[in-house]
Design brief:
Elements (H helix, E strand, L loop, with lengths): L2 H11 L4 E7 L5 H13 L5 E4 L10 H12 L4 H12 L7 E5 L1 H7 L1 H11 L3 E4 L8 H9 L3 E2 L2 E2 L5 H10 L4 E4 L12 H14 L4 E4 L5 H7 L5 E4 L1 H9 L5 H16 L5
Helix pairs in contact: 2-4, 2-12, 4-6, 5-6, 10-12, 11-12
């Protein structure tokens, strides 16, 4: 059983939901990333989503774009991100790590080489924003053969055909984008999210995580009344940006502890 499946199974048995924080690898600096990953787990994160810096992040809003720019200035690319995962694995072999990024760095490394390197580093799941499910059949098979999960995004505009195709190819969990647009947007419509999560559940038995627009404990709690996981990215990056030097880990940890506490009040 994969680490991702194990986590969701254990949480379901305990009546809890998954907290999945996102940070960009190398932001605010490369030396902070691995300690921050460990701190987020200690604060209640169940899965860590690690962004791979890229120069043209089409799905990301200004906040995560700035994080990627800071990381790129430090020279953090895909190879360095995999080194960070390996370092994290030296003292944590249980918490799943999901890489989120874009096709270009993978294509530059070579998909086969990347899959082998990611599996060896201890990556558990991949989100490749611009690999459409219609064109990723072979890639998905190779990812699964390597023991990793390929996670797809679904949105309010996803057609029933797209939902069914993702249900056929995906593993680990399905990432539902709660809003039309980019990361960092707001104004989640819980009624709409609930209806679309229900539609996804009709097509797959995989857990459904919801991201984009979750900004505080109350929003996370509301989302977890209808979904299996809350995925939080831009709001965490804002904490990083607002933190004085040396206080990033403390501030992000405090933010996540509040989120975890609120989520634990939600019954499955």
């Amino acid at each position: 059983m994969s680490r991702i499946k194990t986590v969701f199974t254990q949480l379901q048995q305990r009546g809890r939901k998954a907290l999945i924080p996102y940070v960009t690898a190398g932001d605010p600096d490369p030396g902070t990333t691995v300690p921050l990953m460990h701190a987020m787990v200690a604060a209640g994160a169940n899965i860590v989503e690690l962004g791979v810096p890229f120069s043209d992040p089409m799905a990301d809003g200004p906040v995560i774009q700035r994080a990627g720019e800071r990381a790129l200035k430090h020279g953090v690319g895909l190879g360095r991100v995999l080194e960070m995962v390996s370092e994290f694995r030296q003292s944590n072999d249980k918490t799943p790590v999901v890489l989120m990024g874009y096709a270009n760095p993978i294509e530059a490394m070579g998909p086969a080489t990347f899959i082998e390197a990611a599996a060896r580093a201890g990556v558990d799941g991949l989100i490749v924003v611009d690999y459409p499910p219609e064109e990723t059949g072979d890639f998905a098979k190779d990812v699964r053969k390597a023991g990793m999960d390929l996670i797809f995004l679904l949105a309010p505009t996803s057609t029933q055909r797209r939902v069914e195709l993702v249900a056929k190819l995906a593993s680990g969990f399905v990432y539902y984008v709660s809003l039309k647009g980019i990361t960092g947007a707001s104004h989640i419509d819980l009624v709409d999210v609930s209806a679309n999560v229900a539609r996804i559940r009709q097509a797959t038995g995989l857990p459904v995580g919801v991201g984009f627009g979750i900004r505080d404990a109350e929003t996370a709690k509301s989302i977890c009344s209808v979904a299996d996981a809350a995925i939080i990215g831009s709001r965490i990056i804002q904490e990083i940006e607002a933190s004085p030097p040396g206080e990033v880990i403390t501030r992000v940890s405090a933010f996540l502890r509040d989120i975890r506490s609120a989520m634990d009040g939600v019954k499955s």
